[in-house]
Design goal:
There is one protein chain. By secondary structure, the chain is an alpha/beta fold. The chain is built from four helices and five strands, in the order E-E-H-E-H-E-H-H-E. It has a single domain, classed as Transcription Regulator spoIIAA (2-Layer Sandwich). It has a five-stranded mixed beta sheet with strand order 1-2-3-4-5. A hairpin with a 2-residue loop joins strand 1 and strand 2.
């Protein structure tokens, strides 16, 4: 899994590429830990190049959403493919996030 984080003012865009499986989720979680500390702006999770998400990966999204909600920020999920959209639909995540 490749991850790239870009910050512009109050908007942080996280680009995820590859499979966000249980092993990758541990690394991604560590890299995004600082975002939960300062989640008062907008966090865009760009999943255009993400091919898979596990329950551990979903937990990362949920943690970011919770931190953003507590600090007045928001999380936007962008570019999910049909397989990931199905996972989001089955788990109720489509209702939790703004999907673009």
């Amino acid at each position: 899994m490749e991850i790239k984080v870009e910050k512009q003012n109050t908007v942080v865009t996280v680009y995820l590429k590859g499979r966000l499986d249980t092993l990758a989720a541990q690394e991604v979680s560590k890299e995004l830990e600082s975002l939960t500390d300062d989640a008062s702006g907008t966090i865009i999770m760009d999943c255009t190049e993400m091919s898979y998400i596990s329950s551990s990966g979903l937990r990362i999204f949920l943690t970011l959403r919770k931190a953003a909600a507590e600090k007045g920020g928001k999380v936007i999920v962008r570019g999910i493919n049909n397989d990931i959209r199905s996972v989001f639909m089955m788990t109720g995540f489509l209702n939790l996030f703004e999907i673009q």
